[in-house]
Design goal:
Pfam families: PORR. With 417 residues, this protein is mostly helical. The protein contains 18 helices and 13 strands.
């Protein structure tokens, strides 16, 4: 005889067993993404969308004649940048980065001297690091099943690895002994980069390099506190089996086996080691599932190894980050290109603070003129105040110059993505 089971809810209602099981599976599905939040690493994943947009605007301006673009042209590009509103208003928010001027009743935009200097510094770093980019690209191809990658797929992650946007014209043709561009169908979507020469000196992972430096067998480092007892036990069990290099190929490995999982963990570790920020979107990594023989549920595998990876779903974008690469929220080693990019972010933020301060003071003046803000009556100064001022005493608080700087930083700071 069938028996219906009802589950009491907090609102004194009842759910059938079917509904309860549905909710259980729903909770279980979300629990697959659960990982104890690390405030420092969450701060690393903070996406400053303003920085991304301004970097793209900079690239657009640099491709224009004399490196000057009309605001009308940038307005059309705003759709591709997923922005709304007027481009003129956006550009004026960053006076340290962009110069806007009127000529023949039309607005034009160029870059400030400081911005031009950073753009030139970035190009100089890219020129110096071209051999490094070639090695990095070769290592990516060496980890694939057929030593080839689809160009359109690679473009999704090219900036993660620091490759310039024109790497196909700037880097690949300079190394014909290593790379070859093939296209068997003639369609743009089927264009591939193929490795033509295997370099054994590059077939050494970051894990193997660290082990050789320390004079030990290759194994994964663990970045977990001692209180995570169960996770540490699982990590020790996983680490007790021999390390499998991501450059060793797939011969003899069975999909779903412990050995295959070991190689996959090593492969993702090596991929993240090659990126600028030591992190990547799990969704974009999934584009290479066939080429890199990644499991269909890569997220589940990565969550089993919290000592190696940190997985977050901040902004509804699932991202994996290499724990060992960070000390708190700071990268231990920074790529020279990343140092230049951080300077750009600081310049952008400086301009935004300046704009916000001027905008705030302008609105304050308008309110005063309308009589919305009444001036505060001056307090009668007593003798002790006058004596303190004559003696050069420090009034402290907002009257202190350093305190004023901190006040304005808090008041006008804008970290919204």
């Amino acid at each position: 005889m069938a028996t219906w089971i009802y589950v009491k809810t907090p609102r004194n209602g009842y759910l059938s067993l079917c509904d309860a099981m549905f909710n259980f599976h729903l909770v279980r599905r979300f629990s697959l993404w659960s990982m104890k939040k690390d405030p420092d690493l969450e701060a690393v994943l903070h996406r400053n969308r303003r920085w991304v947009v301004n970097n793209q605007i900079k690239n657009i301006i640099m491709r224009c004649p004399d490196q000057v673009a009309s605001v009308k042209y940038l307005q059309k590009k705003f759709k591709t940048l997923d922005l709304q509103g007027k481009a003129l208003n956006w550009l004026k928010k960053y006076p340290c980065c962009f110069e806007v001027y009127l000529e023949n009743d039309e607005y034009y935009c160029g870059m400030t001297k400081r911005m031009m200097f950073l753009a030139q510094e970035e190009e100089s770093v890219k020129d110096m690091q071209e051999p490094l980019y070639a090695d990095r690209l070769a290592k990516l191809l060496m980890m694939t099943r057929d030593q080839r990658l689809n160009v359109m797929k690679l473009n999704e992650l090219r900036r993660n690895f620091g490759f310039p946007d024109d790497y196909l014209l700037r880097i690949v043709p300079k190394y014909p002994q290593i790379f070859r561009v093939v296209n068997h169908t003639g369609r743009r979507s089927s264009m591939e980069i193929e490795l033509t020469a295997w370099n054994p000196d590059l077939a050494i992972s970051a894990i193997e390099t660290m082990a050789k430096k320390d004079g030990r067998e290759p194994c994964f480092p663990c970045s977990l506190p001692p209180t995570w007892v169960k996770s540490l036990e699982r990590f020790e069990d996983f680490n007790s089996t021999p390390y499998i290099s991501p450059y060793s190929g797939f011969d003899g490995l069975v999909e779903g086996s412990k050995e295959m999982d070991k190689r996959t963990v090593g492969l993702v570790h090596e991929l993240l080691s090659l990126t600028l920020w030591k992190k990547a979107s799990i969704f974009k990594l999934g584009h290479f599932r066939r080429e890199l023989c990644l499991p269909e549920k890569l997220n589940v595998l990565l969550l089993k190894h919290p000592g190696i990876f940190y997985v977050s779903n901040r902004y509804q974008i699932y991202t994996v980050l290499l724990r060992e690469a960070y000390n708190g929220s700071e990268l231990i080693e920074k790529d020279p290109l990343l140092v230049v990019k951080e300077k750009f972010g600081e310049l952008m933020q400086e301009g935004l603070h300046e704009y916000n301060r001027r905008h705030y003071l302008l609105n304050l003046e308008k309110k005063r003129n309308r009589g919305m803000i009444m001036p505060k009556p001056e307090k009668r100064r007593n003798q002790s105040d006058e004596t303190l001022e004559q003696e050069g005493g420090d009034l402290g608080g907002i009257f202190d110059p350093e305190e004023r700087k901190r006040f304005y930083k808090v008041l006008f700071d804008d970290n919204t993505p």
